[in-house]
Amino acid sequence: MPAETRKPEVVVIDDEIQIRRLLRVTLESGGFSVRDCDCGQVGLNEIAFRRPDVVVLDLGLPDISGVDVLRRLREWTQVPILILSVLGHEDVKVAALDAGADDYLTKPFNARELLARLRVMLRHSKPGDGISVVRFGAIEVDLARKTVARGGAQVALTAREYALLRLLVTHRGKVLTHRQILRDIWGPNAEEQTHYLRVYVDRLRRKLEEDQKHPKLFKTVLGVGYRFEGE
């Protein structure tokens, strides 16, 4: 008898009981195993103990802010994190993405879109299958182990940052349009969300370029997209 397929586990951190109930029904119907928490500190403890596959995080929590939870998580884990919040202003979204979130969805949310975004995040967080190590200058990217090093020191990337790096590296020398990248990394409903892409390219430049203001690796093709030029 074949072994039962393991369900991906998600930790939900949201202080609204109605939202947690809705998320549990939605996520379990979508094939996830769910653990939910009503405050940031309990959520941090759950994530440290359970090491889930993905996290759904609200920004407005009663004890510590969602952004603080996000920053604390990014100190030690690259688990994919989806922000689910009533705050839909672009500045709030960019700030959350800049703090380490992999995606952002505004309440009220569409259940099918939520599940689709989580599936994309999980897909991009999986390691590659036997692909060789890529080196350019002091940077080494192990596409099989999903690790990045600079000058021999490990560089911490979020799941989304790594997915973007991998896409650009595997198409080195080619111009990828904004829509191509957004569709591949965030899904077809994100093709107009160019602010997502700007934030993530800036983050890769900060972590991997010698001079972020004069990038040599991640080139902007004005009005079109980006090109990776690592040798």
Quick recap:
With 231 residues, the chain is α/β, with parallel strands linked by helices. Helix content is 40%, strand content 21%.
What does this structure look like?
The relative contact order is 0.10. Strand 6 and strand 7 form a beta hairpin. This protein folds into 2 domains: 117 residues, 3-Layer(aba) Sandwich (Rossmann fold); 74 residues, Winged helix-like DNA-binding domain superfamily/Winged helix DNA-binding domain (Arc Repressor Mutant, subunit A, Orthogonal Bundle). It contains 8 helices and 12 strands. Helix 2 runs parallel beside helix 3, helix 4 packs parallel to helix 8 and helix 6 packs across helix 8. It is globular, with a radius of gyration of 18 Å. It is of the alpha/beta class. Helix content is 40%, strand content 21%. The mean pLDDT is 86.
**Strand percent estimate:** 15-25%
Poorly predicted spans: none
Strand order of the largest sheet: 2-1-3-4-5
CATH superfamily of the largest domain: Response regulator
Largest β-sheet summary: 5 strands, parallel
Number of DSSP E strands = 12
CATH fold type of the largest domain: Rossmann fold
Count of the separate structural domains: 2
Q: Class of the largest domain in CATH?
A: Alpha Beta
Question: So how many helices?
Answer: 8
CA-CA gap between termini: 49 Å
**Class from helix and strand fractions:** alpha/beta
| Rg for CA atoms | 18 Å
Helix content: 25-40%
In quaternary terms, these chains amount to single chain
**Order of H and E elements:** EHEHEHEHEHEEEEHEHHEE
Broad shape: globular
